[in-house]
Amino acid sequence: MNYQYILMPFIASLILTIILTVVFRFLGERGYLGNLYTNVRGGTPRALAIIPFALLSFYFPAGFNDLILIIGIFALFDDLIGRRKIGKLPIEWGQLSRGIGMLAVMIVGFPLLGYSSILIALIVQPINISDMQPGSTSMVVIIMSIFTILAMVMLDAGSILSIPGFYAVYAPLLLLVICIGYSPLDFAGKIMLGEVGNHSFAVALGICFYMLGGFWCTLILFIATTLLITLIRRNNLRIFFARKLNLRDPTFGDYFMDILTGGGLGDVFRRIFLGKKQYTVKNLLLISLGFRRLLYNPFAHRNNYTHNKYQAAHSLEKK
Questions:
Q1: Where are the membrane-spanning stretches (predicted)?
Q2: Please, what is the angle between helix 4-29 and helix 165-187, to 10°?
Q3: Are 165 and 156 in contact (CB under 8 A)?
């Protein structure tokens, strides 16, 4: 393996993120960045992961990188446009853009990845929900990338999919070093990934799962990633459930279901299928599986529920 293709992306991710942070902060404090500069933690630049997005789109193995490029472009539009409603419809422009991007990944990726392209697009949801506090998404990406690399080495992943082992191991290693280069300021709470970041990391991670062992590895690691995010976010979600959903005795299934179906895009589907009805779940098995959270309809509780992903943690605003 030519290690310049690992070292150069790492250095570029580290240095360019620092430079762009300085530029964004300078412009944001003067009111020139709009939605790309938030008032969270006294002023925080958003969508700084446009650097990892660009590097992954350029350095990722050919064909696979197209999927990162697609989802990143639609996610960047989401970052730029902000939370703007589409007329009187119960959906925002950003949510529509995200949905179109996920659908495009499924369609464009199908000839290359088969049904795994659907899972790879859907992993955007839990990774997006993980982006609620400084460093949480970076932590997930780093942990799952390391696991994938170790699994590839032990299982000789190149022979599983009849693709050169160089490309198989290279992809998660590239994802790992780019994320590590970006992450110091993210862990410090000085910058935010934005949708362009968590969406790009999600699709790249899903592709790495596929390279490990096809559809079934993608499915198993999709579930494992969601479980990991659930464990990381569990304490914060307990407070969120109590204050915003009036759910004071949540089960692990409720936490898991929030990661899997929560957020603005999940609420759009609740509006479509549930209207303004709220169904009460009393079956103990369904409660343990998280159906109370799955069927919680925010449109039936407009005075109690607000979803703002970029709130400070102490006030339950999701980063």
A1: 7-27, 47-77, 98-124, 136-155, 167-185, 201-232
A2: 30
A3: yes
- Quick one: how many helices (H) and strands (E) in the chain? 14, 2
β pairing state of 44-45 and 37-38: antiparallel
Q: Please, what is the angle between helix 194-240 and helix 136-155, to 10°?
A: 110
Q: How far apart are CA 298 and CA 275, in angstroms?
A: 10
Given this model, what pLDDT does residue 5 score?
A: 81
Q: Which residues of the chain have pLDDT under 50?
A: 306, 309-319
Instruction: Report d(CA 239, CA 243) in Å as an integer.
Output: 6
Contact 119, 206 (CB under 8 A): yes
- Count of residues making up the chain: 319
**What is the pLDDT, as a whole number, of residue 176?**
97
Q: Which residue type, as a one-letter code, is found at position 126?
A: P
Please name the residue that has the structure tokens 């979803």.
Answer: 307
CA–CA distance from 87 to each of 81, 91, 288 (Å)? Answer: 14, 9, 38
- Count of CB atoms situated within 10 Å of the CB of 26: 12
For the record, the structure tokens of 271 come out as 């509006």
